[in-house]
Amino acid sequence: xxxxxxxxxxxxxxxxxxxxxxxxxxxxxxxxxxxxxxxxxxxxxxxxxxxxxxxxxxxxxxxxxxxxxxxxxxxxxxxxxxxxxxxxxxxxxxxxxxxxxxxxxxxxxxxxxxxxxxxxxxxxxxxxxxxxxxxxxxxxxxxxxxxxxxxxxxxxxxxxxxxxxxxxxxxxxxxxxxxxxxxxxx
Length: 186
Fold this sequence. Notes:
The radius of gyration is 15 Å and the shape is globular. It is α/β, with parallel strands linked by helices. It contains six helices and six strands. The chain has helices spanning 21-32, 62-70, 87-94, 118-130, 145-148, 157-185, and strands at residues 6-12, 38-43, 73-79, 104-110, 134-135, 140-142. It has one domain (6-185): 3-Layer(aba) Sandwich (Rossmann fold). The longest helix has 29 residues, at 157-185.
């Protein structure tokens, strides 16, 4: 079962131009690429078009639908906006329904304040639950993100050990659930 190939989609939570959370999403992606038999698919909402609302035909982007259908698990990396979910992330998640069913999701919250996106992680739990995803613990928190990454988007040496350990722990849990649930879906 450990050799079961998996696809994990890392979902970026915002389209905002000055988004510092993109550094975190790229970092989480790079950690995921270290795992054998795991394909990481980086999903930036800027690369897709989601017209309308909900999962009606006009609200879908076929390329996004293919990715999440292929994905065995999801790792959402999102900033917290006004104590909640960025509209672009909610719109992206709402564009589909069935392909999320019985697939695990890890969540990383990002903020430029001291709490690291705790409230966005909490706000995402009922959304993911409604979409049929299996929320895994622990959530990751990246507080004061402007201090964690340098100007080029690279994690600073003083944070590497802690965030490598915590991100690996989240991936280990996500991959364990992904393998179990992939087998069950078969």
